[in-house]
Amino acid sequence: MFIHPTAIVSCDLVAGENVYIGPYCTVGRNVVFGDNVVLLSHVIVHDRVSIGSGSIVYPFATIGLAPQDMKYCGEESFVEIGRKVQVREHVTIHSGTKRGIMKTTIGDGCLLMVASHVAHDCVVGEGVIMANNATLGGHVSVGDKAIIGGLAAIHQFVRIGAYAIVAGTAGVADDVIPFGSVIGSRAKIAGLNIIGLKRNGFSRDEIHALRKAFRALFVDSIVGSARDKVVMLSEELRSFKTVSLLCDFVGQDSSRSFCAVRNKMMTEDIGEI
Predict the structure, then answer these.
(1) What CATH number should be reported for the domain holding residue 34?
(2) Is residue 155 part of a domain?
(3) Residues 122 and 230 in one domain
(4) Alpha helices of the chain — where are they, by DSSP H?
(5) 168 included as an active-site residue
(6) Is residue 218 part of a domain?
(7) What are the pLDDT digits (tens) for 190-218?
(8) Is 125 an annotated catalytic residue?
(9) Which of 117, 122, 151, 162 is the most exposed place for a label (fewest CB within 10 A)?
């Protein structure tokens, strides 16, 4: 392990092999680093933080500081960051609260771009990309491989489904379904993230099945909520992975409604392939 002479590191740090702690970094109590973790310079890793192997943290990022929550009372909460995560310059990741799950988690392989923010008690899945200045409010969950565009703001307690994409500058106050594509200052569903589906190797049959389920749940004018309509989908349709993920998400309890569908959706985003 290399520790630069200007760094301040707690004596109880638990670190794997080839850890690098650069100039002017600060590492607090009860911190665990996996192998090959790199803090480039001027990084603050506060108390009770774990960072998985191969992750790199860029200058002026802060991890594990107290949440911006008026109800926080100094409880000893945590931050857990997975493997091969990139935390770019000026990113802020805050610890959990007793009114939440007491920890904030970032999954493996995420990319948090410059000045993005992950608030207290968030659960971020694997392979998530947050572009510059994207912001997650408290208690937000983000599914695997979701993309959140620059300057997008996600309201507290919102769920972002797996493989969804949120356009830059969007304000998201309701749940975003898996594979959904949302746009607008008050975000609405513009269709399905077809490009993301293709990039992640989903087959033509999986995409067609998802498109059919999406139309049935959110587009067709059948009376009833999306949760009511899920039980009307055929077993054959629900056997597809894409549809199964969508149905599971729709069936879960949430304090938020679903993002509404725009009146005029872009045909290419609905999934005409």
Answers:
(1) 2.160.10.10
(2) no
(3) no
(4) 194-199, 204-214, 226-230, 235-238, 241-251, 267-270
(5) no
(6) yes
(7) 999 999 999 999 999 999 999 999 999 99
(8) no
(9) 151
